[in-house]
Amino acid sequence: MTASCRWVPDAVMYQIFVDRFSRVPQSRSHPSYADWGSRPTRTHFMGGTLRGITSRLTYLQDLGVNLLYLTPIFLASSNHRYNVFDYYRIDPRLGSLDDFDALIEQAHGRHIRIILDGVFNHCGRGFFPFYDVMENGRHSVYCDWFHLRRFPVDAYGEAHYRGWQGRPLMPILNLANRQVQTYFLNVARYWTARGIDGWRLDAVGEVPGHAFWKAFRRTVRQVNPEAYVLGEFWGDGKGWLKSDQFDGGTNYVWRDTVLEFVVHRTIRADEFARRLLSLAMRYPRDQTRGMANLLGSHDTPRLWTVAKGDAASVRQALVLQFSFPGIPALYYGDEIGLEGGEDPANRCAMRWKAGSPKTDLRADIRRLVAMRQESRVLRYGDWHTAFVDAALNLCVFSRRHGASQALIVVHNDRRPFSGTVALSLAEGRHRIPARWKDLLSQQVYTVEKSRLHLRNLPPRASLVLIPERHRRTTSLT
To answer: Which one of 116, 262, 340, 344 counts the least CB within 10 Å of its CB?
Structure first.
């Protein structure tokens, strides 16, 4: 990430599965739409639109998010739209180009940025070059755009081509072909010039080599020098996270680590601390700050479901999400405890009617957003392990940025700790503050002889401590 992309560490991301987020009144009478809130399936539509998102910008601004990631919005036959037919056309089910422009303009007016989902590893069977191959066979000028096995290309019987994860629905593109590269670089140029703030790029690890993604980033940055380029990774992204390629990646490794500790409880505090420190040091500093730290997405079971409704686990995970280096990345509905298992259950309709006790999570997230935005050290500070006690299931992490410091305490035991942990703060030439305040509970902890005394920790407690001289606080109950 270059200096021109300085806004990224300040971002709080919110992923929207567009068909399921919000629909405007005019779409409710469409005869082909399933009832809003009905059981999600892989085939039906519920009618979420771009205008629906625009109508909810006040809600999103109040939540505190300032970066929207929209799943694919281009013409396709599926509700997820990862099988794109036309990369230059908004799917009419979602709205028009005017609706898109209005969303960009109004979001930017509220200081909310928007990134689009770029699906350039595969397309849909209705993409015009693939359709040409189906019609003209070996005589098509687009044969080398795909990985064909033999002719005729039967897209609805025995598929004679490579499909994403073996699915005929999504033919894999040959991005080694310069014509294919040029086509998609022009697509990226067009939509970036239309006003978006970056791209989330799907399945980047399945594209052989690095040349296309380097060219993609150069192209996008020529149009918008502050554009954010986020790659989708499920494992280690070290080979991809370089200054000439991606500004960050989807941090599923972080997600797995956090859930194993605070939800599944399959690893101890010492292993948890080791893994987090390894992740904090794994990538260049700028790319670490650009990682999307997510606890759920359209490809995973939802957080509330994974936690089996255990609010304490959910809140501990959220505290870690907002205190670890990188971008907190919420999946729509996390803030109200939406439930859902594997696809398609995780793509349910957003619930807009109040009344569920889980809606307290929204207030918690608003406070966590405020905590992070008011503390520069939580956005820019390095990450270190300050203390670990596996027997107590207790970790203390330190974040430091210049002379500023914060301490993140995670006590993951189901029992209260009635004793005292004396945490040494003697470190270099930095002055040791005498009193530290927890931004979540406002409780004050004192320092005696260079040791911070943590007394009577409740079960499943999370603290975010800063020197008390910083007066701004927020309460998380």
So the answer is: 344
